[in-house]
Amino acid sequence: MESPTPLRLKEARKAAGYTQQKLGLALGMEPNTASARMNQYEKGKHAPDFTTMKRIADELGVPVAYFYCEEDDLAELICAWNNVEQAERVKLLDIFKRTVLESKSETDK
To answer: What SUPFAM superfamilies is this protein classified in (predicted)?
Structure first.
């Protein structure tokens, strides 16, 4: 199975309005290698280590988990979750848990 990271990286970079060069420079890469390094990450030829991916995520305003998530709908949920205040997260998590338990009890009947 292919890693979801390269495609997610490209999508997040474009959504944030960065070129490969601009993102590389924002991360502190050398100007003469920034674009090439980002291109290699997006092509899947090389994978950034976790620390680098965390810096990329912070720069692009997405959670680092987004880059590693296999399922598209879960990746979308991770990004949405990132934009919710902590107090709302507690409420949403409670609703989610109750919904899952109710659904499970219905299927167990």
So the answer is: lambda repressor-like DNA-binding domains
Number of domains in the chain: 1
Handedness of CA 99, 105, 106, 107 (dihedral sign): positive
The three-class DSSP label of residue 49 is: coil
Domain that holds residue 67: 5-108
pTM: 0.84
The model's pLDDT over 11-38, given as tens digits with 9 standing for 90+, comes to: 999 999 999 999 999 999 999 999 999 9
On whether the CB atoms of residues 60 and 12 are closer than 8 A, the answer is yes
Burial class (CB in 10 A: 0-12, 13-18, 19+), 52: middle
